[in-house]
């Protein structure tokens, strides 16, 4: 903390305490002197580039007023990546509304500066906060959302609101609803001054979860050491886990003063010299905690804790060294643990096999909030806005009791909301949800306290948000137990911080709500029984993780003695979920190919049977959760759901699950989505890429957030988004609906993945191949061939070869090529013997997938086209037919460079990027043959156009290969990284300049530009079409081609192979060049007019959203279902009153044209 003299602080307070009522005129001076007091940089002077200023007074922001009109407002003080600050208005002049100009009675919410600490003043302060939020929303996307909003009443107070997730949707009082207001007198507190200093310098350091995360990791590491020591003593992991969980909760109870301060630490130290009595003393304490009353071990009364934790008070005998570890853990401040990550780290600490992952990354809290907020909190905050609006209208009309009732009704609603996480793990999503519910409750109670005679909510009775509202399903019993503890720790921690003590909590402290259930979330069954073999013995399989060194090679191979029983599940059915208002969570990341290995054959068979004809067999495990939640929401049994999935969500089989829900008669809509986002897998701490989706019933537009900037910042990335509001398709895109494109017969049977090996022992170096007889044994050159995978194409080729024994039998292989047979029996067979697939186990000398279809398509060709399935840049190369491709290459059996040119053009690359998925830590594009190639409509080019494209494509392919031949370390990825920078106009680094010179990348760019122009001409389109229009035209052309094929006209790409009988071939002349017409826009949705005032406020905001531009009350009237002519004036007055009140609360903005906009 910076040192500031007491005299300087007192002088500042004295000077500004007497500043009077001219706050607005003084705000710049006040803030400048505040910077001097805090010792931080002062705002920069204004320049002629005001729109680029990152730390300045009066930063301009432009608002869209609709119909091509804009207006400019000014942020009082802005600092990029820190805050938007709004100084409280000092004018007594009321806003003049449209109704007032016509002589209507002035709405009382339109007041100027009010007497401080009154409800009217509070309303003005909240209005200023909403104004700051609108300013933040209007900043350029490249600047990101600031983590803070600040509202200053000069000379009196500073209100702080934070959004550390930097989504811009929910800025909450910071650090909590009780302490977010810093008064001038609070400046005497050094901690408050440090808070303000960090606001100006390092605002993210104020994120309590960051500091708590560091503390939590240290505590988990100490617990892990103790757990290891206890297990080495001979206790089971279950005994150790129960013992340590009781210990850690006791430490936490001590630090939040549920137990007397330092009492547990002193008890531990007391038994250092009497270690043999320690278990009895600890057991006595836990028995007292279970029942409450006098605790002999502590010599005083304690509350009743109850809960399942202390039903079994077993305390393990421990050594002095183990007791020292326990004392060391107790010395930490357990009140500072971060529940959002504590569960994950505790699970790793208590699980022997997971303990080594303690140092791995965990899922940052901000990532969790990005899903929890739009799924649960934002809808509730919209209700809260509506309740405040209704309350303000009633209060202004003199109905104070009715105004208070509106707020109380919302509070009851908040305290009855149930949130389900059907894959809750150790409870991080539930905890984050609980905290935000408590934050919102804090705002509600603060609002209520301003009504005369209103008492604070009694924590011993009445309504309050509790862990009972957070429901969880978890198949792992240890994780379920941890989740329950995490929720209670979070709840008690929040209570301790909000109230400073535990005296207001009633007994029992821990209540057995039964809200966390240990059960399978997607499958129920009457029984499970071991699968028996022909000898009536249980069938077993490799456990999936135990290994041993191979006796010859020394490499780790599966330990065939480590077995687990295969079970059959009887009478399988979809599982049922408890009733809830919202569903949110992070189901397991298991792809369809990995399900049998991770879950077992019996389980997967039962799951497929239970969901037959409902969820495709090739869908990922998470889609069973997605389907169930969508069905529940569509049936109006829950309001919203939101899930984390891998970013393969938009790939074919997963997308089918989504599309079915979007196309249903009572349709679902995706109201929020992030197609690709960094994530940390809680199972192993691995960095992965995920998608977030939020579903709601009915047809409505959604908010699509695309990551545009990622900056590393320790355990998480600072992320900026580009947002758009539109209908979100099943592939998590907006605009051209590429998912509607169908596969074309013209493109069938000529694209395929390469060989799936299912064993690395098939790969050999040229020297190893020679030792096996290549060059000396006849016919072996047909069996050991050059081999390429995706990395060989994107980076530097390895120069390896592949042993391909298809279609030889085992006997033929051993007879003809005994050296190869022995090599494969050592290198491949041990791993294959543990494989669950019968053919792979029995035909261990053959590839996992031998691709007979691809072999047939390549027969007779000299060349073919390949592209990596997953790559940062989408490119295509021509490969010699002697090369065997890996399954991570998508291969197209076309040898004409004309096709290579069309595929390499921006038209196909745009299509592939939009139609394919994203995968991996690098957010790389995925080329799916079905969606990217088979749906793509090639142009009907003339011979001359084909020749031009062919010539450029051959030059392009040759250029890249020649540059790599001259510079062996030069990679395709390097060249295209530089090419993208050339396209964007960015400056090249010295390393990139070297790549530019070696790869002659400017020539590469020129070739691509020529190719794009030639392909555009072949389509008959302008060369400079916007990307979105190219996609729209290709979608329309796909539909046109599909209609042709339905009539029997097919434009075969390789007719001699695809259509050897010569059935009707489509006309290869130029097709119509007209852009397909867009589908007619459906009529605007008309809303029903609710009876309840708060629901009317929500309906008006919804109507304004549907209107899609600023509107007057008269214009919004038509968004609602018609009423009788005689009732129209009353309805118009109701809408107008609501709009004015929403504006008065700062929830809407009024344009110069007297229209309202969010």
Automatic annotation (TrEMBL):
Coiled coil spans: none
Broad class of enzyme this protein falls into: transferase
Every MmeI-like helicase spacer domain range: 239-310
Domain MmeI-like target recognition: 753-940
GO molecular function: nucleic acid binding; site-specific DNA-methyltransferase (adenine-specific) activity
Region (Disordered): 536-557
PROSITE patterns membership: N6_MTASE
Designated name of the protein: site-specific DNA-methyltransferase (adenine-specific)
Species annotation: Pontibacter ummariensis
């Amino acid at each position: 903390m910076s040192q500031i003299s007491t005299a300087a602080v007192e002088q500042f307070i004295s000077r500004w305490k007497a500043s009077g009522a001219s706050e607005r005129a003084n705000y710049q001076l006040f803030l400048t002197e505040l910077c001097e007091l805090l010792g931080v940089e002062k705002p920069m002077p204004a320049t002629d580039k005001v729109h680029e200023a990152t730390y300045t007074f009066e930063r301009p922001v432009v608002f869209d007023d609709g119909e091509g009109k804009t207006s400019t407002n000014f942020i009082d003080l802005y600092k990029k990546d820190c805050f938007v600050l709004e100084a409280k208005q000092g004018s007594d002049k009321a806003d003049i509304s449209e109704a007032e100009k016509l002589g209507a009675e002035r709405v009382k919410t339109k007041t100027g500066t009010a007497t401080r600490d009154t409800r009217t003043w509070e309303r003005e302060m909240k209005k200023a906060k909403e104004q700051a939020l609108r300013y933040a929303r209007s900043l350029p996307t490249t600047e990101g959302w600031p983590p803070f909003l600040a509202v200053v009443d000069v000379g009196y107070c500073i209100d702080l609101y934070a959004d550390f997730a930097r989504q811009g949707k929910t800025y909450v009082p910071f650090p909590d609803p009780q302490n977010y207001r810093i008064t001038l007198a609070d400046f005497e507190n050094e901690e408050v001054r440090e808070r303000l200093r960090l606001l100006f310098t390092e605002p993210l350091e104020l994120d309590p979860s960051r500091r708590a995360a560091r503390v939590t990791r240290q505590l988990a590491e100490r617990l892990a050491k103790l757990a290891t020591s206890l297990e080495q003593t001979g206790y089971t992991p279950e005994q150790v886990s129960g013992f340590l969980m009781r210990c850690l909760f006791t430490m936490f109870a001590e630090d939040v003063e549920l137990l007397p301060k330092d009492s547990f630490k002193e008890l531990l130290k007391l038994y250092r010299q009497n270690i043999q009595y320690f278990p009895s003393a600890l057991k006595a304490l836990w028995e007292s905690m279970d029942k409450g009353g006098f605790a002999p071990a502590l010599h005083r009364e304690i509350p009743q804790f109850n809960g399942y934790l202390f039903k079994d008070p077993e305390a393990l005998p421990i050594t002095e060294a183990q007791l020292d570890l326990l004392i060391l853990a107790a010395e930490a401040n357990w009140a500072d643990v971060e529940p959002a990550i504590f569960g994950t780290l505790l699970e790793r600490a208590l699980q022997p096999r997971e303990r080594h992952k303690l140092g791995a990354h965990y899922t940052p809290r901000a990532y969790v909030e990005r899903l929890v907020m739009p799924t649960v909190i934002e809808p509730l905050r919209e209700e809260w806005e509506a309740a405040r609006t209704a309350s303000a209208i009633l209060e202004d009309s003199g109905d104070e009791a009715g105004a208070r009732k509106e707020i109380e009704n919302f509070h009851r609603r908040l305290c009855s909301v149930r949130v389900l996480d059907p894959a809750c793990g150790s409870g991080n999503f539930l905890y984050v949800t609980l905290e935000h519910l408590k934050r919102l409750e804090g705002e509600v109670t603060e609002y209520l306290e301003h009504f005369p005679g209103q008492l604070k909510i009694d924590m011993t009775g009445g309504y309050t948000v509790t862990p009972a509202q957070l429901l969880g399903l978890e198949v792992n019993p240890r994780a379920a137990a941890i989740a329950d503890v995490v929720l209670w720790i979070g709840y008690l921690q929040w209570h301790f911080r909000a109230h400073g003590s535990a005296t207001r909590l009633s007994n029992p402290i821990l209540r057995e709500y039964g809200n966390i259930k240990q059960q399978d979330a997607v499958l129920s069954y009457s029984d499970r029984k071991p699968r028996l073999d022909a000898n009536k013995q249980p069938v077993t399989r490799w456990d999936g993780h135990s290994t041993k060194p191979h006796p010859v090679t020394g490499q780790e191979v599966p330990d065939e003695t480590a077995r687990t029983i295969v079970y059959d599940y009887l009478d399988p059915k979809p599982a049922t979920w408890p009733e809830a208002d919202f569903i949110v969570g992070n189901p397991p990341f298991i792809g369809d190919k990995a399900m049998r290995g991770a879950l077992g054959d019996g389980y997967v068979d039962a799951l497929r049977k239970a969901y037959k004809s409902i969820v495709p067999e090739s869908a990922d495990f998470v889609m069973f959760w997605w389907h169930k939640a969508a069905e529940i929401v569509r049936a109006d049994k829950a309001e919203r759901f939101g899930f984390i999935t891998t970013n393969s969500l938009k790939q074919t089989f997963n997308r089918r699950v989504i599309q079915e829900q979007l196309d249903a008669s009572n349709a679902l809509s995706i109201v929020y989505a992030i197609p690709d986002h960094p994530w940390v897998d809680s199972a192993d701490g691995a960095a992965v890429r995920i998608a977030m989706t939020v579903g709601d019933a009915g047809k409505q537009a959604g908010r699509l957030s695309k990551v545009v900037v990622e900056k590393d910042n320790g355990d998480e990335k600072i992320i900026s988004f580009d947002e758009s509001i539109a209908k979100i398709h099943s592939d998590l895109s907006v605009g051209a609906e590429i998912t509607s494109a169908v596969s074309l017969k013209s493109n069938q049977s000529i694209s395929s993945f390469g060989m799936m090996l299912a064993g690395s022992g098939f790969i050999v170096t040229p020297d190893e191949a020679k030792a096996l007889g290549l060059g000396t044994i006849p016919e072996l050159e047909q069996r050991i061939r050059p081999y390429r995978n995706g990395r060989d194409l994107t980076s530097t080729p390895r120069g390896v070869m592949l042993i391909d024994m298809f279609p030889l039998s085992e006997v033929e292989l051993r007879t003809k090529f005994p050296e190869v047979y022995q090599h494969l029996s050592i290198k491949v067979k041990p791993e294959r013997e543990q494989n669950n697939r019968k053919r792979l186990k029995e035909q261990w000398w053959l590839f996992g997938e031998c691709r007979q279809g691809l072999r047939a398509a390549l027969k007779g060709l000299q060349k073919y086209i390949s592209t990596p399935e997953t790559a940062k840049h989408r490119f295509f190369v021509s490969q010699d037919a002697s090369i065997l491709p890996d399954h991570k290459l998508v291969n197209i059996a076309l040898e004409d460079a004309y096709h290579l040119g069309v595929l390499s053009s921006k038209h196909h690359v745009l299509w592939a990027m939009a139609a394919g998925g994203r995968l991996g830590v690098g957010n790389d594009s995925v080329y799916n043959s079905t969606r990217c190639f088979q749906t793509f409509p090639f142009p009907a080019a003339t011979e001359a156009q084909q020749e031009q494209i062919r010539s450029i494509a051959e030059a392009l392919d040759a250029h890249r290969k020649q540059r790599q031949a001259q510079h062996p370390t030069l990679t395709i990825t390097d060249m295209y990284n530089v090419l993208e920078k050339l396209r964007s106009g960015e400056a090249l680094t010295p390393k990139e300049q070297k790549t530019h010179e070696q790869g002659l990348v400017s020539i590469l760019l020129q070739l691509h530009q020529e190719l794009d122009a030639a392909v555009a001409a072949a389509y008959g389109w302008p060369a400079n079409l916007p990307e979105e229009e190219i996609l729209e035209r290709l979608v329309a052309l796909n539909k046109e081609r599909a209609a042709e094929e339905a009539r029997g006209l097919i434009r075969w790409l390789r007719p001699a192979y695809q259509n050897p009988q010569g059935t009707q071939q489509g006309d290869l002349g130029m097709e119509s060049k007209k852009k397909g017409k867009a589908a007619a826009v459906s009529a605007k949705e008309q809303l029903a007019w609710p009876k309840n005032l708060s629901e009317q406020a929500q309906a008006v905001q919804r109507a304004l959203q549907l209107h899609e531009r600023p509107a007057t009350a008269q214009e919004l009237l038509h968004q609602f279902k018609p009423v009788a002519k005689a009732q129209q004036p009353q309805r118009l007055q109701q809408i107008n009153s609501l709009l004015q009140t929403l504006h008065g609360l700062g929830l809407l903005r009024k344009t110069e044209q007297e229209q309202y906009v969010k």
